[in-house]
Amino acid sequence: MPSRQNQPQEIRPAIPDDLTRSLLTLVSAQVCPLTTGDSVGGCAREGEYAVIGAAGGKVTVTAHNQYALLTVGQAIVLEATGSYTLQAVSDCTVMTVLLRGELAERLFGERLTEGAAHFAGGGGVVRETALALAVMDSEHPPVNGALASAYGYALLMRLRALPEKEPGKKAVSSLVEGAIAIIQEDFPYLEGLDDLADRLEVSKAHLIRTFTKETGISPARYITRVRIEYAKLLLRDQDASVTYVAEASGFANANYFAKVFRRETGMSPSDYLKNAPSREGRQNGPQDRHILW
Known about the structure:
By secondary structure, the chain is α+β, with helices and mostly antiparallel strands.
């Protein structure tokens, strides 16, 4: 099973070819678990954009001309901000992705105000991108440069489709924010909705009612989608077995995993494993991705 995100990880993909590099380069990505009061620094140079998302907890972002408080699920994009500091207000996990290139400027430019743009639901998008890169880098470093750029492009397009954060307005309630944070952080280890409700200290009925009303999807279906997306990522590894992928994604056994996978994707895990391009050779960006926020 995948390890819990309790150690920092930095991913530096290989340099893509000249054409891809001029259009969009994913320079680096970071997964930074922080305890209350801890801080970590970063830097976005001329022509670079730092995409920072709070995957759990609260974190402040401080730069020479910017200050923002991100709560779970929120994200900020900073343009060529120079050095910046991320400091945990509570125990949290913060993800950063550094991009540069013509497409980043074109797609982010119109959304920036004084060098920054805020996205209410961007934290989950940043987390998904950083986690995918972290998994690939752990097993087959370095990540292919063209593949990393494709993930960067998918990140850009998904952020661009999100509404910007309105000051003082929350996208979802604190209960749903907390549920999403726990699911995205601990989906391989969750023992169903009873476990999730116990962690949030609410009744299962209240959790289901509130989550479904605010997101349009039940918490059980959301957990399934997160697990299936992670399973699809693992199946792109030619050495992966269905049994391993089922366990790593949080399913009780391979047979149940195969049934759910077929229902969600229209094919069996074995067929997907045979047909999915390898990580090293995959040139197109992530496809058929669920927007999880």
